[in-house]
Structures are given as C-alpha cells and as structure tokens.
User: Fold these one by one.
Assistant:
Number 1:
Amino acid sequence: MDLALNVLEIIENDPKINISEIASLTGRSDREIRDCIGELESNGTIRKYKTVIDWDKVNNGYVYAVIEIKVSLERETGYNVVADRISRFPEVRSVRLISGDHDLSLTVRGRSMKEVAFFVAEKIATLPQVQSTATHFVLKTYKEDGVLLHEPEHAHRLSIVP
Amino acid sequence: MKRMLISDVVQSVPPSGIRRFFDLANQLPEAISLGVGEPDFVTPWHIREACIHALETGYTSYTTNQGLPELRREIAKAFCRDYSVDYDPDDEILVTTGVSEGIDLVVRSILNRGDEVIIAEPCYVSYKPTVIFAGGSPVTVATDLKNDFRVTADQIKEKITEKTRAIMINYPNNPTGATMGKKDLEEIADVAIDYDLLIISDEIYDKLTYDGKHTCFSSLNGMKENTIVFNGFSKSHAMTGLRIGYALGNSEIIGAMTKIHQYTMLCSPITSQMAAIDALRNGDAEMEKMVREYDRRRHLIISGLNDLGLDCFWGKGAFYVFPSIASTGMTSGEFAERLLLEKGVAVVPGDVFGDCGAGFLRCSYAASRDDIKEALLRIGEFLASIERVVQYNPPISGLE
Ligand SMILES: Cc1ncc(COP(=O)(O)O)c(C=O)c1O
C-alpha cells in the first residue's frame, strides 16, 4: 500500500498516535514516517488535527444550525466573494456550495438558539448578495464526520474459536 | 440402554483434549482474546442492509440446491476477474453453508472406505475429523518454521500410497499465516498430475493476503479439472455467522457434492445468499479497508512478539501469527493456560492444529490495536515472571 495513503488513513482516525507507533504499524522507520507526515503537512494535504466532541454531553454546550442561502450573483465575481465573506465569521463552522434549490449551505454554531437566530438575521441575511435564508436547527447529532455519537457496536464473539 | 449408542467412526475421533481450555477461556469473557478465528469487525452495513431488505421483501424460502443462479453468476464473474479461471455457474459451482460444509461434501463424494487424504499440518481443526467421518484416513505432513510453514512436493510424495486420493491444503493458512507463491504451488500441482490426485484447496483467506498476490490453485496450468477450490464470505466480509461459502470444480465432483447437499442441507439460507450477492457486487471497498487494517495489526503483532523473544516469521496471510515458545521450555498448553489464568490473555495452543504445532501458539490479530498492544504488554510481563522463576529457583537435582 502507498505509504502516504496508509499514514493518512491511520491519522485521520487517530491524530494522537505517535510517530513510532505509526512506524510499527506500517513496518517503516520513524524517520520515514516523520518525513512522510512533514511532506503531507507542508503541501497542505493535512490541514489540521481535529477532535470530534459530542457537545450534547457538555453543560452549556453548543447549538448548531444548518442555514441554506440563496444568493444573487454580481457580475464577474461568482460565488467566491460572498462565500469568502461568510466564511470569515467564526460562528460559521462550514460553508459549502451546493446544487438544488439553494446555493450555499452553512453550519453555524452558537451558545443558544437565540444567539444563532440573531447572528443569521443580523450578519448573514443582511449581506447585499443574500436573497433569502432558511434556518434549520439541529436537534440531535447521530454521526459527526464519520464518527457515530452513540455507543459503537462490537462483534459478539466467543473468546476462543479455532 | 445397554447397546453402545455411538458409532465406531464417531468414537474413533478422539474428544478434543483442548475442550477444557476452550471452556475455561470462554468463561472468562473479560480476558483479552487473541484466540478468535473470526474477524472482530461486524459485517459491513451494506451487507446487513441487504439481509434486512431480503427479509422485508419476503425472501424466506428454499432456493435451488446449488444456490441462487444470480449468486453463482457473481461468483463466476469474481473468479474470472480475480484469477482468470472460468467456472460455469450451471454445473461447476455449488453454494454451501460455509466452507465447513463444502469440505465435508467433497471428502464424502470422493472417498471409499480406507482411502487416504494427505493433509498439510498445522491445519484447521476440522480437516482430519471430516475425513474420518467420511470413512477415509487422514495422512498428515508436518510443515515447519524453517520453511515458513510451506508444504513441499517432496514431503507430499513421501506419503503417497496406492490409496491416496487427494491432497488437502489451505493457504493463506490457519493457524500459521503462511502463504505459498505460484512457484511453490506449481510443484505441488506437478505431484497431483503425476500421481492423478485431487487437490482440495481451502482458499477462504485468499483476500487476506498482504505483500503480494494470492494464486488460486485452479488457475495453475492444467489444474482446473483436478482441483476443488473452497471459498466463502466468513473471513473476507466478516460474515461468519451468516454461514455461507462455495465450492468450485469440475462438474462431476460438484454434481456428486450437490447430490449429498440436496439431501442433507437442501440449500444455504436464502438471506445469506442475498447478502453474499451484495458482498460480491458492492463489498470491495469495505473489504479492502479491513484488509489494510489487518495489515497494520500484522506489523504491530509480529514485530511485538519478535521483540519479546518469541520467534515468529513474517506470515503474509490470514489474520494469524504463530510464534514459537521453545525458548520458554513450556508446552503450548501450559503456556496458554498460565497466560490466561495469570495475565488474562487468551491464545490457542499450537498443537490443537496438529502435532507439529507443539511449541507454538496461535495468536489472532483479528483484535483491536489496543487489545493487541495490551496483550503484548501482558505477554511481556508473563515472560519476565517465568524467567525469574528459572533464575531464582535453580534445579536442585543433577543435570542429566
Ligand atoms: C481454514 C478454514 N477453513 C474453513 C473455515 C470455516 O469457514 P466457514 O465459516 O465458511 O465454514 C475456517 C474458519 O475458521 C478456516 O479457518
């Protein structure tokens, strides 16, 4: 297997793993792994090491909403200008250009429903390019970024079978 | 009742001496287990979804004895794609209730009383009893660590008599993790042709081959006619409990096997057959992901055991490693039992798989990386504790 792919698959699921452990999983030297990760970081393949948190388990956690937006395009500039403007708000967790009835889909995070609603009304809906918004509050997250947010299942096995 | 209830044949198979150990291990569910011969992954969701859909839409009946035509076609397609061997779905493929059933069917189909089957050991526990139940006589060949547990043509030739009917092999191998390359297999094929023997090739671990490509025995020149290939979904797609596999071979033997299957099994469960169709059509990506993860664990466990001073070779298949415990002076059974009771780690004593497995352990890496790491730590502690016993309690009596 290609070393870079192998390393990416390992750290995508376990960013805390250390270099020598990756080396032992792949049968390579520490040096090779360090070089490989260094290259992936410097060429921008690895963007960031992140943690998936179930905020529902935390008192005063976060409220999330999915916001769909229709925009009117200015001549020449396309979607990038408005998407870039929206992306700069720290409340906005993700921005995607989508097909279908709307143009952009955002995930917005706040401390309360009120905070999120006001943010959308004041900061997003008022942008000149934004024609309309539709806000959908997230009631429960079952899976986040490939991670199930409930107890994982295990194979029901005997402890010894030949 | 005065009369003996049990037949001579069944009585002739010794009760498994290891039963007590298995029962013990299975009573200690909190032990870390490297003792399991099945994937620790649950069946991929799309395959389970196919089962659910099959039930919802009323697929709950018998199928044709040979198995759903669609499944046989998918199997034929897969073998043509992977190994360039053509099997006719009409009469060269039989869907069985696991490879286990298939092996039973083939020996019952070909053996007359007293006929011999050469079996390379260490091997899966069912081979010898199945041959005996079929009235045959197993003749074992011992493979060894020196040769990375590959069987050689010369070893087989030594055991051939006029009664020999077949050679039974299993690569990638349970319990050693050994694989055989094309050249190695060709030498065995030559023996089979020279002596007109059938090859029974259990290739259930074919997809779990790391560093290299599996060679399907029937893809060797001239071998399709005298090889019965067994494969299934238990290991490659983590479907052990669905009980489904298949046999491929010439129409005469497959026909004979179908005759027994039709009266004893009737057909494989239809839900599992539907699942198997989905596994073949849509299962490659998930399977490859599991294989990549097994390969990482293989590196972890083989280097870990070697670092602890338990010699094991770099097996390239299945999900087993077979370390030697010769350096400890213990028997496999003693080691396994003490390791379980003192450190809570379950492994399988090597001699369960044949006499030549004595002095070895089978460790399965179908276990999470965390479990493997913890097990290696505890095995290390265990080894340290027994070395101390040797150091501090020198033998009192003389040296002879
Ligand atoms: C070599 C070998 N053959 C056959 C089997 C049984 O397979 P199935 O689940 O298809 O009956 C096993 C299971 O451990 C095995 O290791």
Number 2:
Amino acid sequence: MIEFRTVTKRFPDGTVAVDEFSLVIPARQTTVLVGSSGSGKTTLLRMINRMVDKTSGEIEIDGESIYRLNPVKLRRSIGYVMQNSGLLPHRKVIDNVATVPLLNGVSKADARQGALELLDTVGLDRSLADRYPSQLSGGQQQRVGVARGLAADPNILLMDEPFGAVDPIVRAELQQELIRIQRELGKTIVFVTHDIDEAFLLGDQVVLLEKGGRIAQEGTPAEILSKPANDFVATFIGADRGRRALSVEVVNGRNVVVDADGRPTGVLQ
Amino acid sequence: MNWVVNNFGLVWSLTLTQVALAVPPIILGFVISLPLGWVANRFRLTRGALLTISGLLYTIPSLPLFIALPAILGTGILDPVNVVVGLTIYAVALMVRQTADALASVDPDTKQAATAMGYSGWSRFWKVEFPLAGPVLLAGLRVVSVSTVSLVSIGSVIGVTSLGYLFLNGLQRDIPGEVISGIVATLVIAIVFDLILVGIGRLLMPWTRADRRLSRRRVPEVPPVVAVNA
Ligand SMILES: Nc1ncnc2c1ncn2[C@@H]1O[C@H](COP(=O)(O)OP(=O)(O)O)[C@@H](O)[C@H]1O
Ligand SMILES: [Mg+2]
C-alpha cells in the first residue's frame, strides 16, 4: 500500500506541480493515474521512488515513511518503466534486465538466468538477449523495459506512459500482455497515462487528475463511467459527446454495438 | 631517398622520441579534462568561465609558451618536460569543451532511467554517463592526437629534439629528402595514433557499431506468442 498525505511539490522555479495531493494506492492492484499533459502525473510517480523529493506532506509505503529509507536502496526495490524504454543503449538486452539484481548483489549467473526467464515472461524470444537496444523495435524495447522493471521482483512497479510511443496495434498487444503479467504476479502497479481508454482497460482503480494533481474523481472504471463526478470528468471520458453512450442494433442477425453517432464499435457476444 | 636510406637510424630514433613526447600530453589532456568538463557541464555558472579560459589557452602561441615554461616551471631550457607541459595545456584547451559537450550529449531519459534503476551518483557517472559520452570524447581525442603529434615538432626550435629537427636541419642544409622524411614520419605517427584510437573505440564501444548494423538489417518483430514461465 502506498499512501500520499497532503503532498505538495513546488519546483525551484516556482511551479507547483502537485498541490496537497492525498491518495491511498492499494497493494497488489493496478492504479492508473490519468490526466492531460502537465497535470503532474510524472511528478507524482517519481515522488514514490524519490527521483523527485516532495516539498511538504508525507508519503508512506506499507505504513513507513519513504523518507526514512535510503533513496538508492528504495529505487532498487521499486520497478520503473518509462515511455521511451530508457534502456541503457550501451548494454545488451540481457544486461539491461540483469542490472538491478546485480546492483542488489545477486550473483552474475543467477542474475543472467533470472533475466532470461523474465524475457519469457514478457513474451520476448531469448535469442534477442544479446542484442543491443537499438537493434530492437519500439515494442520489443518496451517489453525489455517491463522485464527490467520486474527484474528485482519488486512489490511495486511504476509505469510512466510505457506504451505511449508505440503504434496502436503493438500498444494493444502490450496492454494485454501487462494484464496477463499482472494476473500472474499481482504487483502493486501505479500506471500513468493520458489515454482514458488505456486507463479504463488496465486500472482496477482510476484516478482522474486535473492540473496540479488535483483529483477530479477516483474509483473503478465502472463507477467513473456510470457516474462522472462533474463536467470535467464527463468531458475527459467522452461521455458528453455521447461517445460512451452505446446502443445495440441488430445487423445480419447479430447484435452490433453502435455509438451515439451510429458508428459501429463492436459486436455483442 | 638516398638520404633516408643512409639516415634511417636517425629518422627511426627521432620518430620514437616524437611518440614519447606526444603520448603523455594526449593522455594527460584527456584525464585532466574529465573533471573540468564535468564541472563545466554540471554547473551553469562555471560553464562559461571554464570554456572561455580553456578557449583562451589555445590561443597562446606555442613558441613563446615553450620559451616561457622553463621560467615558470623552474625546469632547464632543454628539458622535454617543457614540451610535455605545453602540449598538455593545448590538449586540455581542446578537450575541456569537448568533454562538456560529450557529457551533455547523453540522453537525459537514459540518465533518469539509470537513477530510477538505483545507480548512485558516482556509479551512474562511471557506468552510464562516461561510456555513453564515449563517441564524442573519442572524436575530441582524435583531434587532440593529431594536433599534439604535429605540435611536438615545434619543440625542436627551442632545442628539444624531435622530428622537427629533420625539418630545421634539412632546410638549413638544403636536403629536401631530410625535410620530407620529417614530414612523412610525422604524418605516419598521426595516422597510426588515429588508427589506434579508432581501434580502442571499437573495442570499448561495441554498441556504436550495432547501431550501424541495424540500418542495414531490420530486426524482425517477434510475434506476440506468449511463453509463460511458472
Ligand atoms: N524539473 C521541473 N522543474 C520545473 N517544473 C517542472 C519540472 N518537472 C515538471 N515540471 C512542471 O510540473 C508540471 C507537472 O509536470 P509533470 O509531472 O511532468 O506532468 P505530466 O507527467 O502529467 O505531464 C508541469 O507544469 C511541468 O512543466
Ligand atoms: Mg509525464
């Protein structure tokens, strides 16, 4: 469990990126922070592993203040996946994945073996282990990024728009893969995105953010969809445009789901 | 040509002297520039000052510098140390800016990722930033190498013997073969040094060649078949 208590982050230039933010992030579930660019998502995420230090307030993991822990040790115990994979370009795939275990003092052979198994977990062929990151496609790089995030077997996995830079088909694959991995591993995932569809797809909880990390609404996707708290939320989730107002039409004997404009979006099973 | 054949021993020994005088300034220049370039890159205030000073150093004419150094260092006029120190100053002048640029060329995302993985500041520098700055550092080092090898000859004017001696002596005694052999030997050293540096770069930075291979041979996307481990 991760808890933010009235956390504020003011950068040296005076920007208040996060203003008195409070949230409880439950363990072993996926919590998605969703909001437009500049709403403070990255800052919130990076405060959890102390890449960004809070200005005031308190952040706890399992009831213990993260400010009582050594920041480097803290980071080694938390997985982090970022948008452009952030892989070390001068290390082979296998070494990228094995780095954190090695930093944690795991033996070279064990780290390597663990890294190979993680490539399986994220659906990458082991033959890619000796490639450099630049020799992989964008989607493959993101998979390596996820494998690396999982390498130290952390309880917490932070993901900052990890699928934002890949094409829609690969993104859909990666999303399904993450759902499967989460079903197997049950990590506490904090996932940041600006894509509301991605948030509803992946999140057990969704936290909708406005500027300054102000929470517009939090709840399960169903709760938010069924009862948008205000106009901001309604606009953000597309309810105002009727995009979410689906109805069923029978076409060729099958139930086709259409949106408010009559455009088909799926088939009812 | 005759002159070269008859004096090969002299040319060879001067070549070795030239190499011995050129190597220390190249290495010292690289090592000294590393912390200076780091500071220049790290703090905006020091950047302007350091880069200006190092830029000015390079504009000091070499002959007066070589003549002034014995007085400053308390060395003998003919001491080769004068040449080594003088050339080190030029090497630093060239390398500080290059080192600052090299460190600045490292992708900020990569540095953030390294921090997120749990590298501490010091190990992040040596294990991530320094190697990734390598290609730009190497480019600077190649310039320093060529410049140093050719500048060593100027030491001959103040009496520190090197291949420059062949040039001076050949001109005085009107022996074109001697002048040309001095020039050719200097060129050969410069080329050999450059090849060595490029070789070291390939050895230490294999990933830079992986990039190039990629452009020729696209890596096939692995199908989304899932192998689940227990
Ligand atoms: N290092 C920084 N210095 C100053 N302002 C920053 C810094 N990082 C982020 N900000 C500002 O804080 C706000 C929130 O940024 P960020 O957390 O990156 O938002 P998001 O990830 O939601 O796009 C933005 O206005 C951004 O410009
Ligand atoms: Mg962001």
